[in-house]
Amino acid sequence: MAAAADLAFDPWDPAFLADPYPAYAELRALGRVIRYEPTDQWLVPHHADVSALLRDRRLGRTYQHRFTHDDFGRSAPPPEQEPFHTLNDHGMLDLEPPDHTRIRRLVSKAFTPRTVERLAPYVRKLADELVAGLVREGGGDLLAEVAEPLPVAVIAEMLGIPEGERGQLRPWSADICGMYELNPSKDTAARAVRASVEFSGFLRELIAARRREPGEDLISGLIAAHDEDDDRLTEQEMISTAVLLLNAGHEATVNATGNGWFALFRHPEQLAALRADHSLVPGAVEESLRYDTPLQLFERWVLDDIEIDGTTIPRGSEVALLFGAANHDPAVFADPGRLDLTRAENPHISFSAGIHYCIGAPLARIELAASTRALLEQAPALALAAEPERKPNFVMRGLEELRVAVG
Fold first, then answer.
1. Residue ranges for the chain with pLDDT beneath 50
2. pTM for the full model?
3. Which of 161, 316, 403, 405 could form a disulfide with 73 if both were Cys (CB 3.0 to 4.6 A apart)?
């Protein structure tokens, strides 16, 4: 088995972060599962295995529904991180059945396809307005001017957060999401804890206001959601759900927008084809999600021993499902290193799979398509104005900024 020092896979190396895909090819060539000591994980780089393990109930996002920390051979989080873990651990993304089943069922009552589709005109109008502002300025940072405000405003509108109170949402989200990187620092943890306390307090007040005066928003819907057994979301579950919807609902969309347009600028023939035929927009959205995946890794705990290609991975281990590697697997995608907006078969797993499939995927697709169309229509000569820098993150892959000129 290759030692970590011999691998091109290095989540803290700027060269790797700039382009991890050659390292993924090396991992796939090494085998179906590779032990990686620096993060105490088993790396899984092949599409078939990642897809299967996302659906395998012998793995879980948590183990605490079956084991104590001691039983599982793991240490409890430091006490000072309790506010973050209380917030994170009550969201459906980090729960397993039966709690996950109950919460997702109740959230789905408020987060219906009809609710999402009703937002489509608002999303298109907002995207048009944001792009118009970028055009008036002659260009600027596409992320700050369009990619970030669009999904934040949409989720805030869904949740019923007043417009004048949305300023802290993005900073809170960024600080909380820092904890999802590999081996986060103490400073990262401290910022996440502070953001968790402040965000939770903000939402607790909003929930209390909606209890007094219900509206048509998602918070009111979560308060009212119940089923035939009269199960309801606890206040903590509502808070954690709202934070999850905001974090997941815009972090990936922002990164997908930046990664996607940067890829188009580096493939002018594909950008020219898109400009000539706007019916390619849906395919462009899917291909951008595959080509430079905004969420590179999803972790799972091994709840019962599993075997991959003759290697036993024991209970208590953690596997790292490499979405970026899976989305470039040549066994599934012809010429995976090529950006192809007309790719006929595109079974990417950027929205995960199984019971944790992204509940906001339809909304993300609407947002990405709306901003892409608005930019094509209002800024047909959009061009890269400066080479962008990547964020020093691995799990959530994105750019610091994307400076553009509108021609």
1. none
2. 0.93
3. 316
